[in-house]
């Protein structure tokens, strides 16, 4: 086996986006299948594909991905709360002091979005060895979406987790109850406005992440 | 009386057996009973509670109840810097801890557009396989002990110790190495480690050979595991089964070979093992072959270890650029992945942890329907889960 020399350790990443025909083709086929329900997509060449669909097309998108793209493997399902943390950024202690913590504008990630809560599911094709991340916006006044159990029975537990962690209701889910938390637990822990009590009681001792060298300036 | 045709005779025989069955059912009809297995039961690898509703000896409905070990890592990760998160996720699958760190680091590296130097990638891959061996050797003993064979588990613990010693020698941590860094590894390998590890791999191969005869060749083991808990490939995939569990159903899919992560698997010569049966026996068989294969991967990696640095150039205080990335690897238990949403801060904005056992065990309500009570244990043991990997 050849020994690679240290000159091979070039870590500079390619800056220009690579064209990715296979992922483009997936996005096009999904767009054709969903029609108006298709919002937009984002492709990182050679790496990943994000697609955003309308809430009403959520199960249709899963069905189309399974039947037309060959995504037989149900990877996972979850949600993202895009609200900037009201308790400040970074390693701040979480205190009730909203004035000093300037609220950042809400910014959604790849494939965009308009609302605070976004559903995310990840499907994978074991024949093409390619995955797809499908997102859907949930309006703030109606946090509900159709269940995927009919398409992927494995979605059952993932949906129960999203239900207790984010308070998202899954229409016609047969058994929507807590999976981890005790039944009488109040609140939805993974929402950004759910305080992490340990951090409110005392600041995190690990705020200084890197021990500085003598004479070195802090961050 | 007219002669009775063959068709009619067959039908009458059928009716007669039906009637006999009905009589039998009436005779042994019992009231449904609810059986609680766990939370403290050796078959539950921690604190999984299984509520099974029984009709006689048969399971009508079984439901795992989790949450006894829920630690909320997804929430905790949102208030820790990226290097601090690895300390947490070490504790997800505690038998193969190093393997937990790798996909997280890979996802963060994707966002930062950093790639570890080759030497770091090779050592990473070797340690990854060592954690696989440390993890699966325990399974090989543990499933046997749950089927009533006491000796294998002692042998598994004995030989796993050699592997843990090597992991400790390289990383400083027996169970929680916390050794992987964004851009590379904490340290290079210590002197003499490569030779020692090769000797240990020799021992593990002997261990595999021994187990092939001792457990797989055992008549009782075969009788209790063959044909028990069959998972059809399509059902397994729809439930998100991954790793050896799905390969035992004949699905030829392994993220080590098919994934595109920056690891050195494509540099060595190895094969993916599958088994067509999909039963408990097949799951054990596949894992045994994978352990042996892992020793060959480690040997080859150590033979061809490239020279060079073990860290890429990364800032000392790591701020990850805004974006989203998902990285998944073939962990000992199956596919483990991290979906990281970054806003360009010191801490991740959101981390979704895709752990293998959570999906693997989600098939149990489907799989346990109609099985007999002793088979519950076989099936749970063969699906192989770590509670930390379910509850996170």
Short description:
The complex is a heterodimer of chains A (219) and B (392). Chain A is an alpha/beta fold. Chain A has 4 helices and 7 strands, in the order αββαββββαβα.
Structure description:
- The complex is a heterodimer of chains A (219) and B (392).
- With 219 residues, chain A is of the alpha/beta class.
- Chain A has one domain: Beta Polymerase, domain 2, CATH 3.30.460.
- Chain A is 19% helix and 21% strand.
- Chain A is built from four helices and seven strands; from the N terminus they run αββαββββαβα.
- In chain A, the strands form two sheets. In chain A, strands 1-2-5-4-3 form a five-stranded mixed beta sheet. Chain A has a two-stranded parallel sheet with strand order 6-7.
- The radius of gyration of chain A is 21 Å and the shape is globular.
- The termini of chain A are far apart.
- Residues 1-16 and 93-100 of chain A have low confidence and may be disordered.
- Chain B has 392 residues and is mainly alpha-helical.
- Chain B has a single domain (76-369), classed as Cytochrome-c3 Hydrogenase, chain B (Orthogonal Bundle), CATH 1.10.645.10.
- Chain B is 50% helix and 12% strand.
- Chain B has 16 helices and eight strands.
- In chain B, the strands form three sheets. Chain B has a three-stranded antiparallel beta sheet with strand order 1-2-3. A three-stranded antiparallel beta sheet of chain B has the order 6-7-8. In chain B, strands 4-5 form a two-stranded antiparallel sheet.
- In chain B, a hairpin with a 2-residue loop joins strand 4 and strand 5.
- The longest helix of chain B is centred in the middle third of the chain and has 29 residues, at 118-146.
- Chain B is globular.
- The model of chain B has no long low-confidence stretch (mean pLDDT 85).
- The interface between A and B is large, with 58 and 68 residues.
